[in-house]
Write a structure and sequence with these properties.
The protein has nine helices and four strands. By secondary structure, it is an alpha+beta fold. The mean pLDDT is about 95.
């Protein structure tokens, strides 16, 4: 069991509703008195709010994901490290949240990455603090599976874009366009597979 789990830090994380309420309050703050970096963050908060709302409006969990979540026959805590300014998270966290809501055995809790860097540093992606990062735990703190920070096709696309563009923001813009064209839907199948492979097969009769 990780020390942070034993200290119940994931358990004390934000519910999805609390996370969205905090996000909404942040994005509605006045621009008056903000420095340029704060204004930029506020810009992302507002755009990402629209993106996550679009996913929730368009998304219905697949039969495969429903079946995978239904196979979770013991309580699990799904910890997601993320931030509302993250473009990937705006598209992908709604999929995770809707999957978690399918089962009473799954409890979703959100930890803000920048407030929990010691935990984030235990789940780096190629040395990077990339988000969103989902880690599923049993009641005893055993890791059942991890997923994130982005679907494989998006990961490969971004790697290619970073080679093509010196400007990282240009690469991010094209990645966001991929998500806006429906690339976020890949998260459904990958999440279903991650859950399915983590659930022990029933004993043979």
């Amino acid at each position: 069991m990780p020390d942070f789990f034993d200290a119940r830090r994931p358990h004390n994380g934000l519910t999805y509703d609390e996370y969205r309420t905090q996000w909404r309050d942040q994005k509605e703050q006045s621009k008056e008195g903000l420095d340029p970096d704060e204004r930029k963050t506020l810009h992302f908060l507002n755009y990402n709010w629209e993106r996550q709302a679009h996913v929730h409006d368009q998304y219905t969990p697949s039969d495969a994901l429903r079946a995978a979540v239904a196979s979770v026959d013991e309580p699990q805590l799904w910890m997601v490290l993320t931030e509302p300014w993250c473009g990937d998270s705006a598209f992908l966290l709604p999929v995770i949240a809707e999957a978690a809501a399918l089962s009473e055995n799954v409890t979703l809790r959100i930890l803000l990455r920048d407030d929990n860097l010691d935990i984030m540093d235990q789940y780096l992606t190629d040395g990077s603090r990339s988000i969103p990062k989902l880690v599923a735990f049993s009641e005893d703190g055993d890791e059942r599976f991890t997923w994130g920070p982005r679907p494989e096709e998006a990961r490969q696309l971004f790697a290619t874009l970073r080679e093509e563009h010196d400007d990282k923001m240009k690469a991010i813009e094209e990645l966001i366009a991929h998500y806006e064209d429906g690339g976020w839907e890949d998260a459904d199948a990958e999440l279903a597979n991650a859950i399915r492979t983590s659930v022990p097969a029933p004993p043979k009769q």
